[in-house]
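Give me structure tokens for this 198-residue protein.
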Amino acid sequence: MADRASNSYRVLVLNQISASGLKRLPGESYTVAKDISDPDAVLVRSADMHTFEIAPTVKAIARAGAGTNNIPVAAMSARGVPVFNAPGANANAVKELVLAGLLMAARNLSGAMRFVSELDAKAPDMDKRVEDGKKNFAGIELSGHTLGVIGLGKIGCLVADAAIKLGMNVLGHDPEITVDAAWSLPSQVKRQTAWPKY
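Here you go.
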């Protein structure tokens, strides 16, 4: 177990946390470890704290990420323990994954990569196989197509903006949009209150 440094807060870390984030907890004021008993605070990313026995010494819980669904917020509120999160901290990474998914689907990249990996570079008819096969992976251009974004928080706004820059038409829906999100939303996003049935 990590020993308490004099006059330091004890922070239990339940997941791997970026070193740059942990630098905000200097050693002269904080004892930070994965094996602390009687912690003053808990720092968590994805660990499920609903099944975790939270020490009575805990005065705060911080989530290194958006949302608090893995933390028993109601139970902590009843104990007077505040729960913090970092909304938007990974928003750019999620936006990039959404864009990667759009491009993979539009261009059938998974199928194309499988096709290429199965080619024999030494086969005498490889050029013909490539020419015959590549027409199956033409895909579509995203420009001019419509994307619906449900939820216009930080991630939704970033996805909408990136899709517009790709030439897409964007429909957005969020009945609980915040003023800050509305200000950061590109003006080209068309408000959608009901979705057509297909």
